[in-house]
Amino acid sequence: MDNEMTVVAMQMILHAGDARSHIADALRDIKAFNFEVAKEKMAQAEKELTKAHQAQTNVLQEEANGVKHELHVLFIHAQDTLMTIKSEYELARQLIEIFESIDGRLKKVGA
To answer: Looking at domain 2-109, does it have CATH number 1.25.40.10?
Structure first.
């Protein structure tokens, strides 16, 4: 069971890390006002976050069904990593909306 939890934790960390890379790319695109490309990167990030979240959910569902898992520090770290990157995702998503709004207003005034 310990090895299984290590594998799950590493899957979560790897997928969340891939999501973070896509988010960082999207932020660079947002800064350059390349919103459509940023949205594509965010869609890739969301796919990775979904994979990481599913790995976590599987463990939680096992627990709910009576399968006991020992406390595993790497799994706790993976959960922390996932939630941190999910927060970064949400902030970047909001930044796209904010920058698109600003860009639209600037275009209206001819700036």
So the answer is: no
Domains of the chain, by residue range, sit at 2-109
- Give me the active site residues, please: 77
Which residue in the block uniquely carries the two structure tokens 């790897």? Answer: 14
Determine the residue type at 75: F
For 51-75, the pLDDT digits (tens) are 999 999 999 999 999 998 888 899 9
Which are the contacts of 71, defined by CB distance < 8 A and separation ≥ 6? none
Residues 36/99, Cβ–Cβ less than 8 Å: no
2-31 vs 73-109: helix axis angle to the nearest 10?
Answer: 10
State the pTM of this model: 0.89
40 vs 74: CA distance, rounded Å: 31
